[in-house]
Amino acid sequence: MAKRSLLIGVDIGGTKTAVIASQKPPATIDRMEFPTRPERGAEPALRLIKEGINDLLSKRGLERTTIRAIGVSCGGPLDRIRGVIQAPPNLSTWVDIPIKAILEEEFETRCHVENDANAGAVAEHRFGAGRGCRNMIFITMGTGFGAGIITEGHLYRGANDMAGEIGHVRLTRSGPIGYYKAGSVEGWISGGGIAQVAPLAVATGRKRGETTALAEHLRHGKPITARDVALAARNGDAVASRIIHSTGRRLGQVLAILVDVLNPERIVIGGLAIRLGDALLGPARKVIQGEALAPSATICEVVPAALDERIGDVAALCVAMGL
Amino acid sequence: MAKRSLLIGVDIGGTKTAVIASQKPPATIDRMEFPTRPERGAEPALRLIKEGINDLLSKRGLERTTIRAIGVSCGGPLDRIRGVIQAPPNLSTWVDIPIKAILEEEFETRCHVENDANAGAVAEHRFGAGRGCRNMIFITMGTGFGAGIITEGHLYRGANDMAGEIGHVRLTRSGPIGYYKAGSVEGWISGGGIAQVAPLAVATGRKRGETTALAEHLRHGKPITARDVALAARNGDAVASRIIHSTGRRLGQVLAILVDVLNPERIVIGGLAIRLGDALLGPARKVIQGEALAPSATICEVVPAALDERIGDVAALCVAMGL
């Protein structure tokens, strides 16, 4: 392999961390992953990241000098320029971890760091459902809710890398809590939000005499996850379908704000939207058409992310490419 | 004067239209204005615009060939590329007026057309309170409420020139009407919105036993304008001050959304904010600090527009410059 031709992506999530090798993204040569286990602190995971990169190299008999750059994709807040992870909510023990310096010293190469919503936006724009768009918004809708914004073909980061924090916007005066705020977008429309509203929906269903598979979870003292709701809805569960429908309508309200303010050609939604599909996006699209200005709403497509499970890998590789 | 060195700005508003000549904006050589009188249709105003440009030329003994370009700044909706005004709310009789073609034919020069919020954003960014900013939002807060967005030093127009329509965003489920929508940003926070909420504030004041100069207007069957409220507040009127304070808090809610989503260095507010100053912006700034994410809120300045009464003139000249 030619010198300095290998890109290494490191996708650090609250649940798992993946290390990916590529010569020409989005194609990958190899990958490995391990549980992040943030409760143990950053040290063990950092060691596993280094070992993972070394393993990927040695499996193919490659020298470190073949690495062109390393890209780290990770939840914010982080200091992108200095390359420091600053205790994101899903990695609360990772306090001021200078991951750029650590990896640059270890592998004697450049390392870039970017928040996962921005990296995902570039990945979908370059290789996924946002191809060919000049103005696009990528929404991550998983445990949290965030956005990466592409304007005029380029990632828009804002004055101090904080743009796209739509999950923090207040949708109602009170409501489920997300991003430390009651009634926020992340409170209403995320995996965490669905877990909060589901017990209420089950109680309402009970009053109406509806049986729902979700009641079982509560009976066993288990939290209801977005995954549970998706599965139940697919089996025709009315309560679960209603949760997804109302989450879709809330999603439409938020997207209508983005449509009126940013007038994007396309909104690409990852995470839960991929699993829930039109059950979620149908109601969202309808609200956008009613709520946003017609000329903007008409031209804006709302679609699920196309890179699917691979988005984290490709996003980290886009960071390695320097975005 | 050198051939093709003169810029002509045409600022068309619902109340008045101004024609401005300049060789080096923001300095102007001369200007004239006349009432737009949209109730008479576009024809008389178009004739006066042409006469106005000819008068400015002949007063200085200049030929038409000295005109480098004409810039028209006007409320939207409009077709910027074709240069057609499409019945904006404040010029509802101006249905599909091809002003670009009309002026290009008459003066044998290029004519550019841009909506006034975008033109104002560029004017404040280049010559006013937004100088030196890479990421800035300009808010027009007059009869209506709109925004012009500067990202990475350039005007951001969106996919089909509709970006910045924050006035259309819903703030509450019901409320004063603006932009054809109850509870919208324009309904709550604009001259039109203040006129709608003022009678309620007077009634509340009466219940509390407060006397207010604004009651006089209602007694004579006159609407209360934002100007009336500003004057009364300056004279210590408690009811008027409360209207401005609560409008400021609503403004803060909207700006907090823009701060979280766009992370601008500065928000520059024209129109009513210039007249009301800190009585309006003080409460707005406080809400932003409480509502938006700290790293974004801390670095974002909220200031009144600096070009003051001249903003329309300079905005139209920026359009003539090709923005």
Describe what this molecule looks like in 3D.
The structure is a homodimer. The first copy, chain A, is about 40% helix and about 20% strand. Chain A has about 325 residues and is an alpha/beta fold. Chain A has 2 domains: about 5-120 and about 310-320, ATPase, nucleotide binding domain (Nucleotidyltransferase, domain 5); about 135-305, Nucleotidyltransferase, domain 5. In chain A, the strands form 4 sheets. Chain A has a 5-stranded mixed sheet with strand order 3-2-1-4-7, sandwiched between helices. Chain A has a 5-stranded mixed sheet with strand order 10-9-8-13-14. A two-stranded antiparallel sheet of chain A has the order 5-6. In chain A, β1 (about 5-10) and β2 (about 15-20) form a beta hairpin. In chain A, α5 crosses α8, α7 (about 225-235) crosses α8 (about 240-260) and α8 crosses α10 (about 280-290). Chain A is globular and about 65 Å long.
